[in-house]
Design brief:
homodimer, 129 residues, alpha+beta, 3-stranded mixed beta sheet, 5 helices, 6 strands, 36% helix, DNA-binding
DNA sequence: ATGTAGTTGAAAAATTTTTTCAATTAGGAG
DNA sequence: CTCCTAATTGAAAAAATTTTTCAACTACAT
């Protein structure tokens, strides 16, 4: 399970597995690309500072991705590779899994060696056309 | 010239071309992906609020892109299509023009019709390998 | 030259994020 | 199971960032 792996990674690095951290992880597992406020809602009892600290920690160990999709940061579990579609009309955010870079891939670019990438696509969702 | 086009667009939409706006535009033309502080440095005499307002305005009319590359927002003229390489070791930001999506292109994705996209590549720069 | 809507700077307000610090707790050692 | 200790937490304060307010100013159409 996804969460188990993250918990293992926390323990492996000497971090404690606290109820607060578990709560944040479960909140993240419940839905993708959530804003801080949404996470707050799902993590009642977890202090604001702890929420920030936990997201920092999880981002640091690669368990969480911090997104900037247009209005304020969002967070999601970093588990699977996918990209975001942002509707410029209604603001809806959706995902797609078929990475357009899969085929072409990213070889060395100049002297730069890629490790990861993020791709955001802006346009209009089905509903808004 | 790039700036002329933007100035035209401002006028066309009923915005005034003020010395402050020109100063911000020239600052943006001087270098890519600048932080607010860098822009501040190049725009002496321009009030902070005006700088924010101007960047907002220019972003609104599509003349400027606001970037989120890792630590704090950055801004650049939206003129040409390019993407960013972010070195995870030293933080250096560089660009590349050859868009990997050029060939494959982005057709309709599900019901979503793409208008633009942004791609950021994280890895290690030549110097850090 | 004039009038006016748009613009500006400075300060205040609002928002967001980080830090501080005393109290609490997870988890290893015995 | 109990103890111990370093890690963690919450609340409040502080810091950083962004937006708003408002009176004075100015670009530019007429």
């Amino acid at each position: 399970m996804e969460l188990e792996a993250i918990i293992g990674r926390l323990r492996g690095r000497g971090y404690k597995v606290t109820p607060q951290r578990l709560m944040v992880l479960k909140a993240l597992a419940a839905e993708r690309h959530q804003s801080l406020e949404e996470l707050r809602g799902r993590c009642s009892g977890v202090g604001l500072a702890t929420l920030y600290r936990t997201l920092d920690l999880l981002t640091g160990i690669g368990a969480v991705r911090r997104l900037e999709l247009g209005d304020g940061p969002r967070y999601e579990l970093a588990g699977d590779h996918h990209h975001h579609l942002i509707c410029e009309s209604c603001g809806e955010i959706s995902e797609f899994e078929e990475c357009p870079l899969d085929g072409a891939g990213l070889g060395r670019i100049g002297g730069f060696s890629p490790r990861a990438h993020s791709l955001e696509v802006y346009g209009r969702c089905a509903g808004c056309r």
